[in-house]
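The records we work with from here on pair a chain with its fold. These numbers are not coordinates but entries in a learned vocabulary of local backbone shapes. To see the layout at work, look at the sequence and tokens printed below.
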Amino acid sequence: MKAQPAVIVLAAGRGSRFLGADHKLAQRLGSATVLATTLRHAVATQLPVVVVTTEAFAEVARRSVAARDVIVLPEVGSPGHDSLGMGYSIASGVSAAPDASGWMVLPGDMPMVRTETMLEVARELAQHPVVFAQHKGVRGHPVGFAAELYSELTALRGDEGARRLAARYPAIGVEVDDPGVLIDVDTEADLESLRVAQQAGQAQAQRI
């Protein structure tokens, strides 16, 4: 069976800009939580999905993907874990899917990224080392990395993520009709805007 790109969903951050009582990934968005919605769209690609998370969200992740595909990290800021951060999360996710033909990095707080968008980025990864989704010329997520970058991805540490790596190699943007590639839930205002937009979309669909 031909290897496919894997979707690496990052859900191990503290979400410190979100001031609500519960973590932003646990917030309700329609009939599911923010994280569960992101995972539903990723799983619908039928590509391998790896979730890098903490113990707080491990059970949510296991409802969507196999237990072996849930990588549980200590909380960021835990004593003795100074190297944790987005870079380490990416490295952990890529390491868990070493036989994939590439990896698409998708933050868990981006529940509006469409399944079709992920598949478009995946298709381009067969031809390019770095591929990212963009909407109206603005760069967004997911960001895909080809198999040739495995060693560098698994060496990432700290908070920088893969930005420097993406800048080092030829990268192409895939223009998509999907504003969700630019929308994350960082603050309570972000979440409220998403809820309003979702309700408006549902109301419009009912009128059609």
Observations:
- The longest strand covers residues 138-146.
- Helices lie at 34-43, 55-62, 86-95, 115-124, 150-153, 163-168, 188-207.
- The chain has a mean pLDDT of 89.
